[in-house]
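Cross-posting from the modeling subforum.

Setting up a comparison between two proteins and wanted a second pair of eyes on the formatting. Protein 1 (sequence, then structure tokens):
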Amino acid sequence: MSYRILIPQAVAKEGIELLKSYGFEIKNGSGAKEEDLIKDVVDCDAILLRTAPCTEAVLKAGKNLKIVARHGAGYNNVDLAAAARLGIWATNAPDSTTNTVAEFVLGAILAISKKIFLMNRKMKEGDFFFKNTHKGMDLTGKKLGIVGFGRIGRKVAQKAFYGLGMKIFAYDPYLREEDYPDYATICSWENIFKEADIITLHMPLVKENIRCVGMKEFSNMKESAYLINCARGEVINEEELILALNEKLIAGAFLDVFEEEPPKNDNPLLSMDNVITTPHMASNTEECMILMAVQAASEIIKVLSNEKPSWPVNNPLIK
């Protein structure tokens, strides 16, 4: 039996080749909007999904759908409950981005603490001696607060502790004490913002986390502290972050994600000297893109071979 796989957005050729090696037909999507998926999914058995919205309407339109395989670790763009009701597996690739994103966060820590991007810009503007009045910060012995201590958070901790000699402070409401490494100090939500010299966010985007980091947290941070967000833009209240930066409640921020993507050109965060912005690119490496595509494809192969997937994120009522 020949199965048809919908791919709404481009993925690495290695994932596509793996699916083709099993005789599956690839259907490239006509777009990444909900209405595009509704139209394209009608005759498909699986979706290899990146960031397109996989809503209940999309799932219902896919009369033959058996699996939606997410290309990456997050799955907030999939209606998991609707998929379960309709007997459709939803999966992710939970460890595909771990090391890549952790490396990126290490780079963010170095960039923000050493003012690398600001110095680069000022030097290109002809101000070689701007450095004399804008010194960086050493990291050895500084406190790194990691909010969300899952796969990526733990990998960041390992790299920062062993590679940079930083002190690790961690907060995660879902972990037990024995789940933390010996070098991590477990903190409450309030204390981690109070103690850390650099805060890096790694919590999932669930309802209770939307805009959970705001003025209360910024007011609790040191004036010399930095905030890094390579998780999801919606976990920060951007309006309050802008206010905190303008009022110098914190020293600066590194943002790879935003409440609205792409952010509007007049977003103040894009023009602040004490903010580094990147275009949601923490996992954007050749190696990571291949791994995400291959792992998502492997889940599709399993389900269409009547096997249980390795990384399900729902529990469907099998038809």
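Protein 2 (same layout):
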Amino acid sequence: MKLYNYFRSSASFRVRIALQLKSLPYDYLPVHIARGDHRKESYAAVSADMLVPMLETDEGERLSQSMAIIEYIDETHPAVPLLPADALGRARVRALAQSIACEIHPLNNLRVLKYLVRELRVDEEAKNTWYQHWCREGLEAFERQLSQLPPSTYCYGEMPTLADCCLVPQIFNAQRFKVNFDGLPRTMAAYQACMALEAFQKAQPAACPDNEL
């Protein structure tokens, strides 16, 4: 498999975690979205939406959108499942994952932050305040969801799931923007438990060949 991705992209990070949890080998193909490499014709020929990540399967099929990619990986390589066996559990985990991927991340991704600065002329402090506000609000909602679930080591249960694949990258980026994590005990405990695992460590931005840290 080939993974077109950017080391600091939360969505790319999610897929790298899933691949590491399943011990699946892949070719790492960097696309530097901060420089706009995803807008080049060469990448547009590969990715219709010109976004990362994009997975090319062993058969040459191309898949976009991190959540779809991860579920494809989980279905085609069921060892170390990323979703619970029961329908209710799967719904719970998907809800947690989507709270990050569909609620927090879209308001704070690179495209939005660049638009705030370049088009709306927002200064750096205001941009960071935007990020901190919406990220914190989303994490508080995430914490409330966790508080209604049975105690667990990870977001849901005693094994990492799709929800953890989404949570860890969001916390990484939130740390860069100095988001306040006070009062999020379940959220941060799940994050710390994940980061104690080799799979999450290997997938993190600092371990990527294109990292600029």
